[in-house]
Recover the amino acids of this structure.
């Protein structure tokens, strides 16, 4: 079954081309991926990301349930703060990466598209197994998620709210009224630019808010942005796309997410991670920038001296750099900065070198 | 913006155009095709001299998120390719019928041209 965003008709009116992603028919682009991409880097863009999920976690042990099932110690994340984290299986592999927000007595987590049922069931099962008074409730259908991203996002959003947005700190979250719509705001995003995300319910409220945001951003030439540019924006910053980077089962150590792991608490998968850490020789997600012309894509093989050493998890042309970029898993001896590998594109080798993340630095727009 | 269909060219149902010049044909993609693809960022062209059969892959055109194989509408030998596309693939978007041509083929079998559309039939598609 394919679901549509509650904003489908608005997207259609705005000239969107659609694609199916994880069971959702969502806009892939409005004007063009390159144009939308550069709009977000230089000014401001508006995304409908309703394909992402919303799960409430309630009950007096909600904090304990999050600490048990994620690599974060939820005690450390106070009311009004959010955190990027991962939910692991016992073997240490990632079920899903997600943000959780601490709003008052409750927590909201944002699993990836198509993951709400799996994650909700996992959390409820673990609550039961560990006798925790906590409940996960999938409310994805009740919410629209909008993301406003880019250097002009704050100025645009500020026009529609009395809350001083400078008080909403990086990874802060709180209730807010935007154009008289009561919603949850967080200073988060998936583009590497200044940006905010809004959790809106009931969904019909989101229609007028979407159009009001486009109107408020007119002076900055705001544009609606599709999933195509969302993917190129995140890849230039080396952010993970769960369906690509966790394919086949990967641990947060392999996915270079060790910075998210709080080792001072007990969580599902911890023992497996400790063992892997001790072994040390595991493959790690690595960033490669093409030297030759050619665009690496998901599934392209990576070779060193004619031998297969890995597979591209995500690849694209970088609209900012105008070169091919890719992420894939490599053994430690192949991932030293500057090491040159060959990515096989339609049977032809495209030379690429290992670089440090991100591909595109924070001040790119000021310099170009 | 209305998509251009140029008079005097031959067309395929899969949105390629051919300009027949005696024994050779210049091949490109139509205005409609470039508009659908948007932002062409890479073109892989065949080697000069290569013999290509009708229906075989002629070249590959990539946008940021898509890879599209262009299949040859006729059989023939590659006599020229548009080398400008190596550095400036966006020419296809800007000028699909002129500067953004792809390949010139020496026509092997003129009877294959009979199956191609004229501008009027392509416009009606």
């Amino acid at each position: 079954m394919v679901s549509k965003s509650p904003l489908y008709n608005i997207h259609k009116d705005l000239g969107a081309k659609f694609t199916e992603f994880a069971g959702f028919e969502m806009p892939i682009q409005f004007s063009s991926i390159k144009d939308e991409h550069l709009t977000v880097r230089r000014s401001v863009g508006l995304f409908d990301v309703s394909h992402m999920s919303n799960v409430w976690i309630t009950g007096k042990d909600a904090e304990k349930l999050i600490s048990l099932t994620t690599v974060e110690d939820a005690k450390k994340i106070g009311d009004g703060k959010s955190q990027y984290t991962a939910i692991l299986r016992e073997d240490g592999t990632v079920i899903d990466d997600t943000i959780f927000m601490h709003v008052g007595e409750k927590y909201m987590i944002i699993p990836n598209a198509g993951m709400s049922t799996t994650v909700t069931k996992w959390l409820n099962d673990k609550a039961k197994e560990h006798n925790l008074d906590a409940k996960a409730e999938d409310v994805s259908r009740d919410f629209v998620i909008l993301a406003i991203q880019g250097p002009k996002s704050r100025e645009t959003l500020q026009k529609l709210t009395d809350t001083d947005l400078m008080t909403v700190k990086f990874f802060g979250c709180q209730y807010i009224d935007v154009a008289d719509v009561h919603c949850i705001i967080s200073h988060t995003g998936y583009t590497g630019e200044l940006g905010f995300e809004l959790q809106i319910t009931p969904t019909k409220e989101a229609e007028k808010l979407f159009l009001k945001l486009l109107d408020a951003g007119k002076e900055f030439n705001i544009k609606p942005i599709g999933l195509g540019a969302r993917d190129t924006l995140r890849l230039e910053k080396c952010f993970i796309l769960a369906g690509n980077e966790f394919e086949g089962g990967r641990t947060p150590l392999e996915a270079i997410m060790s910075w998210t792991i709080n080792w001072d608490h007990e969580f599902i998968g911890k023992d497996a991670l400790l063992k892997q850490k001790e072994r040390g020789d595991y493959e790690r997600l690595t960033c490669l920038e093409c030297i030759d012309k050619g665009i690496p894509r998901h599934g392209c093989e990576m070779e060193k001296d004619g031998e297969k050493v890995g597979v591209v998890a995500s690849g694209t042309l970088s609209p900012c750099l105008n070169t091919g970029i890719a992420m894939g898993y490599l053994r430690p001896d192949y991932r030293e900065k500057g090491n040159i590998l060959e990515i096989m594109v339609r049977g032809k080798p495209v030379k690429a070198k290992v670089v440090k993340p991100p591909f595109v630095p924070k001040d790119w727009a000021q310099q170009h | 913006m209305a998509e251009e269909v140029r008079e005097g060219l031959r067309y395929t149902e899969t949105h390629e155009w051919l300009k027949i010049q005696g024994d050779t044909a210049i091949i490109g993609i139509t205005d409609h095709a470039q508009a659908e693809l948007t932002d062409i960022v890479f073109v892989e062209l065949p080697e000069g001299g290569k013999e290509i059969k009708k229906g075989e892959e002629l070249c590959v055109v990539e946008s940021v998120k898509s890879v599209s194989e262009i299949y040859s509408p006729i059989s023939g030998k590659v006599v020229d390719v548009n080398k400008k596309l190596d550095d400036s693939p966006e020419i296809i978007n800007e000028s699909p019928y002129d500067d953004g041509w792809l390949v010139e083929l020496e026509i092997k079998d003129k009877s294959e041209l009979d199956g191609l559309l004229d501008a009027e039939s392509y416009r009606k598609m």
Notes: The helical segments of chain B are 31-37, 84-87, 91-94, 119-124.
